[in-house]
Design a protein that fits this description.
Length: 164
C-alpha cells in the first residue's frame, strides 16, 4: 500500500527523479516559464510552491533549505529578493499550468508552467488563431497622440497706405 507516499515515480529512480526536479525548478525560477509534459508540470508545481513559501519566510534556515534544492546560487538569491514583493499577499497558487497540445514525436501531452506575478493578469497564450489575430491588431492600432493644434494668428488689418 502507498499510504503517506506523496509524489510521482515517473519510471525513474529516486536519485534521477530528485535531480530532474531540482534542475526543472531551477530553470523555472531562472526563466519564469518552461515547457514540459503535463505530469511533470503538475509535480513541479508542488516543488515550486514549497520553495516560494520558503522564500517568503526568508530566514536563514529557509535560505539553506532552498539552496539544498536550487542548483544555482544566483537563482536562489533572485528568488529570495523578489519573493516578498512578488508574492507577499498571495497565499498559494504561485504557478499557472497551461496545456499546449501534444508533442510531435510521441504525442505526449505538453504544458507550459509559469510563475504568477502581481502585474501579470493576462493569459499565457491566445486559445485560437482568431484570438491571436485580434490581439495583434489591438497592439498595432494605437490611438495617435493628439497633435498640438496651432491656432492661426489673426492677420493684421491692412491699411489703405499699403493698398495704394
Amino acid at each position: 500500500m502507498r499510504h503517506g507516499k506523496a509524489g510521482l515515480k515517473l519510471g525513474r529512480s529516486s536519485s534521477h527523479r530528485k535531480a530532474m526536479f531540482r534542475n526543472m525548478v531551477t530553470s523555472l525560477f531562472k526563466y519564469d516559464r518552461i515547457t514540459t509534459t503535463d505530469v511533470k508540470a503538475k509535480e513541479l508545481k508542488r516543488w515550486a510552491d514549497d520553495l516560494i513559501t520558503l522564500a517568503k519566510r526568508g530566514d536563514l534556515h529557509a535560505q539553506r533549505q532552498a539552496l539544498s534544492i536550487i542548483t544555482e546560487k544566483e537563482v536562489a538569491y533572485k528568488l529570495f529578493n523578489e519573493a516578498t514583493d512578488r508574492y507577499g499577499d498571495i497565499h498559494g497558487g504561485y504557478t499557472i499550468i497551461a496545456k499546449t497540445g501534444n508533442r510531435p514525436g510521441d504525442a505526449a501531452p505538453m504544458s507550459i508552467i509559469e510563475l504568477v506575478a502581481k502585474e501579470k493578469s493576462k493569459p499565457i497564450q491566445p486559445r485560437s488563431r482568431k484570438a491571436a489575430k485580434t490581439a495583434e491588431t489591438k497592439k498595432k492600432v494605437e490611438k495617435p497622440k493628439e497633435a498640438a493644434i496651432e491656432k492661426p494668428v489673426p492677420a493684421e488689418p491692412e491699411t489703405q497706405a499699403e493698398n495704394a
